[in-house]
Specification:
Blueprint: H1 6-11, E1 66-72, H2 88-97, E2 103-107, E3 113-117, E4 125-126, E5 132-136, H3 151-160, H4 175-179, E6 203-206, E7 209-213, H5 221-224, E8 254-260, E9 264-269, E10 287-294, H6 296-305, H7 308-311, E11 313-315, H8 323-329, E12 334-347, H9 355-364, H10 367-373, E13 382-383, H11 410-419, E14 427-434, H12 438-453, E15 456-463, H13 467-471, H14 477-481, E16 484-490, H15 500-504, H16 518-527, H17 532-550, E17 554-565, E18 569-570, E19 574-575, E20 580-581, E21 587-588
Parallel strand pairs: 1-10, 1-11, 14-15
Antiparallel strand pairs: 2-3, 4-5, 5-7, 6-7, 8-9, 9-10, 11-17, 12-16, 12-17, 13-17, 18-21, 19-20
Amino acid sequence: MKRNKPLALVAGAALLTLAACGGGSSDEGGGGSGTDREFGGQEGGTKDAERQGPAADVEGATTGGTVTVYLPGDPGPDTLDPTSGWSVTGNSIQQALTSRSLTQYVRDESGQPVLVPDLATDLGTPNDDFTEWTFTIRDDATWEDGKPVTADEVAFGICRSLDAEAFPSGPGTEYSASYFQGADTYKGPYTGKDPGCEKWDGISVEGQDVTITMAKPFPDMDYWGAFMAMGPAPLGNASKPPNYGNKPLSNGPYKVESFKPNEELVLVKNDQWSAESDPGRHQYADEFVFKFNQDQAKVDEIMLSGNSDSQTAVSTALGSDKYNDANGKLGERLVQQTSQCVSMLTPDYTKITDINVRKALAYAYPYEDVWIAGGEVPGVTRVPANSLMPPGMAGKKEFQVDGEQITYDPEKSKELLAEAGYGDKPYPITMVYYEVDPLAVAAQDQITKGFEAGGFKVKAIPVQESLYNIWLDPDNKVNKQLNFRGVNWCSDWPAGSTILPSLARTGAVYNTAYFSEKSIDEEMDQISTLPLDEQADAWGAVDEKIMTEYFPIIPTAFRNDLFVFGEKIGNPTGDGSIGAPNYKDLYVMQ
């Protein structure tokens, strides 16, 4: 899953959106507070198929009040259509508060994410070879208009995820398209002019049972079920895009009051939601107000002031210059959330064809200077990365592309450029940056200085929209000029299958490097046919091969995040399933 703060994307800096990011208390290698901060992996794979509603009350929780969430430098989601949701920001808000799916995550006592049922009565039933899954839909979930959520609506929502033209950057382009039977020929309900999804036979409904047939074994379908794209949508034109994305019908504890893209989202209580139907969510606050594209310095000032504006507020980031002050002053209200997320730079594999030039870029990138300029704290929210798979993920190999960790070394960069035949004049790099955020501007200044010192000539194009809108559009005029992009990625669940294909498979939506090697595609395709106990190591081996033999992607940082909670926000914790504040369990102290 992408993290969609533009600064983070280009610079590998600053916080913004994944799904199975690590969590926990500081002594468990997860969320921490005070001075005890460390990097750690997720203890993935915990499940509880028997969990039923209502969710256990949070000790001391009270009802009422408004929670204001500041998101510095983060433009937020472009659309609220659940089928499009594939960003940490959008998914963390909607999955927690408005949009239910087959399964969901809850936070256990040690801070670890646990996969539990949601609209399904359990975690689904596969056949022996995982090529068919059946989910029984509970009969007590409702929409905000009081009508029941039906199995047919769940099936229709799942069918929508196959429409790559209607939802070009949605998660269905990766998982539904790769695993569901018939996905290679079915165009979707809108593009294929099939409003009832009658032309796709990969899904069937019998009573409350929804059965999905796979094109190849998919043992992780229960994890994929936690995405909003695996949830319901009203039948027919009622959920037709793009209009539905402005104010989708809620089936969670909150509903959309108003939505101004790039500015603000206001959620209020959904009085038709039943706690008894939901094993994971609460409805403590009266209202949530999310403020996007906030200035980090101004937010820091608010959150550290202790005034009335800060007391019932949350910030999804903290400026690096305020870390020492906040660390001593806030205590448990400054929460560190570990994550299985990696920040990456992606030289265009079709334009920058020499591996030595790609390595030169890695040595010319001034990692810590960029982190600090972008508001990060080296060693706390960012550490050097060596691979696409993050720490703590099963199968991750311990290797170094050049024998040791690549660090900023402009002289080494120049040597590599000379070896590639580009020692006579600076090598041209064209990239974009998000000029709306002052931290993004500061980080880009450091990137430009580092690259120029390493023998490159940088053309940095300022833009005022999400960088993903440019990078993911092959027809975009600015994108066509670029030979250098980026991506921030978090595992969608604790497996290499949610990282490597999304970033390195030919034609994958978030393969912003345009990396394409037939042998790598074939190796990735074969892994799902291996015995389950061999798949993790196989993903680790492909990761090492991609990086050491081709180096198409430059991993700049493994990520932690810092969240700041006001003194009247109860249960200040992180959500280890997605690397975001734990919105499901927050309340306002009365």
